[in-house]
Amino acid sequence: MTLNLKNFFNPKNKMSKMGEYQELKHINGLEISSVSADLYGDGRDDMCLFYFPDGSNFAAVYTTSKVTSANINWNLKIKRHFVRALFVNTKNANAFTGRKGAHGLKEVANTLAKSLTIKSAQDPKGTKDTVKITDLLFASTGVIGEEYPYVKIKNRIPELVKKIKAEQNKFVWFKAATAIMTTDTRPKLAYEECKIGNKLIKISGIAKGSGMIAPNMATMLGFIFTDASIPSVFLKSILKKVVATTFNSITVDGDTSTNDMVSIFATGKANNSKIYNVLDPKLQDFEKALHTLSLNLAKQIVADGEGAKKFITINVIGASSVNMAKNVGFSIANSPLFKTAIAGEDPNWGRIAMAIGKAGENIVAHKLKIKIGDFLVAEESSVSKTYNEKDLREYMKWDSIKIEVNLNLGSSLYTVYTCDFTNDYIDINADYRN
Amino acid sequence: MTLNLKNFFNPKNKMSKMGEYQELKHINGLEISSVSADLYGDGRDDMCLFYFPDGSNFAAVYTTSKVTSANINWNLKIKRHFVRALFVNTKNANAFTGRKGAHGLKEVANTLAKSLTIKSAQDPKGTKDTVKITDLLFASTGVIGEEYPYVKIKNRIPELVKKIKAEQNKFVWFKAATAIMTTDTRPKLAYEECKIGNKLIKISGIAKGSGMIAPNMATMLGFIFTDASIPSVFLKSILKKVVATTFNSITVDGDTSTNDMVSIFATGKANNSKIYNVLDPKLQDFEKALHTLSLNLAKQIVADGEGAKKFITINVIGASSVNMAKNVGFSIANSPLFKTAIAGEDPNWGRIAMAIGKAGENIVAHKLKIKIGDFLVAEESSVSKTYNEKDLREYMKWDSIKIEVNLNLGSSLYTVYTCDFTNDYIDINADYRN
Q: Which residue from B minimizes the CA distance to A366?
């Protein structure tokens, strides 16, 4: 745990801005299992299965990287909108593993389909349908370029299937969220409820991510499960919209992974009235809840950024376009000089000005206003008249730092979340593979 | 000194690739002075004057940042192609200092013009022309947003002018190159000779830069002086071409400064035959020498990157365009995950693949070939058959690391130079202002 948990409940830190722990609840139509294939050599859980006995609608968004892992390539080929399971492994990304990696994944898929078919046949409530490999989705995270240990994984699948739990209490969720961790120091979980028509809808989500977190996701995995009944095409359109201002608004180090994936599964067990239109007002509450849950998970990822000691919110307002606001925000959030200044608790706003200047946007220097917390630090191309170094030094000690940049050019805005850049980041990443 | 100097002469480190020290020589028509205005509070030299008694042709390229310092704004307004002096101060960037910063700079300019006019009148060899403030160029580097200490600077100008030395030996150059340093751990100097027609031409150059070094320069100052006689418009066109593959091909942290400036001054004292055309074959040798000198200075800057322990050369070949090669090269060079792996002497080529993938270029994963040193590490979307972790671990201990990425899409190429990312970078930048 790199963030000081004591301070999580210090009111001056406004921790509600940094994501919150919530107790996750059971989602009807979902069953979970996690075991160890001993990929780390220390017996920790490293494989996790999300099983839908009666299948589930789903939607997913993937990394924008041109170098994608075997599992992302697999998922992209699944054209159907109804799946039976999602399998996740950590330690090995199965990326840049060529034909061997693709072959290994297929071996795992065959074994998993077979085991689930047997389970399904035995299940008194299940569909008894054969599970095909095209019913399966995969997520992997870990080291890139190392051989995919498919034999070790395959051998543990019978045990994984055997251990499937039909009910999720908070411990089952915690175990699953822990099984998908890599350099994460804590699991990320979020829960929301909403209504579709008169039906109560539950949404439980988990995520992992700590480094290589950049816009357009990162080595970031997000799995969201709901009992709502929503067609997959509508799920996709809502998910894309929600991700744009949640999972895609965070950055730890500007690096983007080969394995990013955020997906949502809707089992339909809540039996809400049928949705015929993505603009159906009945979906508004659901979209809002999904946004809250996604932002919560995204913030938990940033707060757990490798070596992070500070959570940083950068609000860019007054831009001519959302794109301009986004570019300026990420230019600040990804600047190593800015991030190290925050680590040093130094209100060096000159580096914010520098990062705004280098963003490549047509900003007008003398119109810029920069705030750190509630303190105006710069305006009219100069330090503000009310600048008080002592107050700012005090503010910089907080765990959660807010930066506001007003470009004074228009009315568009965008918020980026990031963390500081500390010695621990270097230590974690200097020899990550060992 | 962060780089191990012992290893500079270790042949396995191929140090010639990292820039070399050279003894700089006197340039006719140039006089130099450097003194302390005690801006650092420890008496080190922090102001430096380059004076041309008979004036000099010149050309300069500046930062692409939209937030520019007072001195850059000043220089951009100088429309003439003939100047009398360049004044440099460190410690304070005079950036984001508004009207007060511009006013302070003008005060300094007035004082300097007056002092130089008096000197000129007394000089038996000089032109005795009045020096006007529009004959002066300025460079500043240091903290952004702090009040420009123009009174301290002004007060020391008479002493600075009094100490002007008409002749430069290597010690004068060393003193000047040291006066312009900020977080640099050593001065950067380079020297080349060439011929224009039958005349020997001398070129002496100094530079500063250590952090905030990114393409399109950085807090990077480069001052190059030659006795060649070349019209300023031709100087400009040659300088721009040379900078594109030298000063603009380096990065320490991806950050770009408000104060970048590379300039060349040609005093004309070599009396070479008049140049009427920038494509004159007589200029080829000069352009080549200027390129060698600029690349040498640029490499010295990277080798002295804040906290750097490794010098990294990234050759991107087989690209469809130079732009593609450049984007891929900088995507690797600016990746914190790649840079920390190099710091940890970890041949984690998966991070190179990751950084190539996120560059936003249309690369084809299975065509990629990645080499570390002379070792092929990845091809056909997979680890290479000849991959040998032991050999690579040994190679990673070297001071100078070479990466080659073959995109196998075309014949364009670009080379980027950078350094690793260490704990020292964080320490240097966490509280830079104190």
A: B98
Give the per-residue pLDDT at B3.
Answer: 37
pLDDT (0 to 100) of residue A252: 64
pLDDT at B126: 66
pTM: 0.79
Nearest CA in chain A to B148: A382
The interaxial angle of helices B423-430 and A423-430, nearest 10 deg, is 170
Residue bearing tokens 């009944």: A229
The per-residue b/e assignment along A146-156, b for 16 or more CB within 10 angstroms, e otherwise, is bebbbebbbeb
Kindly determine whether residue B426 and residue A340, on different chains, have CB atoms separated by under 8 Å.
yes
Nearest CA in chain A to B252: A336
Summarize the confidence of residues A276-297 as an average pLDDT: 94
- Three-state DSSP at A258 gives coil
A302: distance to nearest CA of chain B, Å? 16
A373 min Cα distance to partner chain B (Å): 18
Closest CA to A387 of A348, A418, A419: A348
Q: Cβ of A421 and B422 within 8 Å?
A: no
B259 CA: distance to closest CA in chain A (Å): 10
C-alpha distance from residue A300 to each of A209, A255, A295, A433 (Å): 9, 18, 8, 24
Q: Do A348 and B64 touch (CB under 8 A)?
A: no
ipTM value, please give it: 0.71
Compute the residue count for chain A.
Answer: 434
Identify the sign of the CA torsion A51, A54, A59, A64: positive
The residues of B that are catalytic are 219
- CB-CB contact of A258 with A68 (8 Å): yes
CB spacing of A340 vs B101 below 8 angstroms: no
Nearest to A91 by CA among A18, A5, A171, A156: A156
Cα of B199 vs its chain's centroid, Å: 27
Condensed to tens digits (0 to 9), the pLDDT of residues B213-251 reads 543 334 789 999 999 999 999 999 999 999 988 988 887
Q: Which of A350, A360, A429 sits opposite B96 (nearest CB)?
A: A350
Closest to B57 (Cα-Cα) out of B112, B110, B117, B135? B135
Strand pairing class (B400-406; B369-372): antiparallel
CA distance A294 to A310: 20
Say whether B341 and A143 touch across the interface (CB within 8 A). Answer: no
Q: What is the rounded distance in angstroms from the CA atom of residue B433 to the CA atom of residue B6?
A: 31
| Residues facing B115 on adjacent strands | none
Q: Quick one: A165 exposed, middle or buried, by C-beta within 10 A (0-12, 13-18, 19+)? A: middle
- What domains lie within chain B, and their CATH numbers? 5-303 (3.60.70.12), 311-430 (3.10.20.340)
Angle, helices A98-122/A150-162, rounded to nearest 10 degrees: 20
Q: Which residues of B29-64 are buried (b: 16+ CB within 10 A; e: fewer)?
A: bbbbbbbbbebeeeeebbbbbbbbbbbbbbbbbbbb
Contact residues for B287 (Cβ-Cβ < 8 A; gap 6+): B238, B241, B242
Q: Within 10 A of B271 (CB to CB), how many other CB atoms are there?
A: 13
Distances (CA, A) of A67 to A139, A223, A236: 15, 22, 23
Q: Which two tokens mark A198?
A: 């008169």
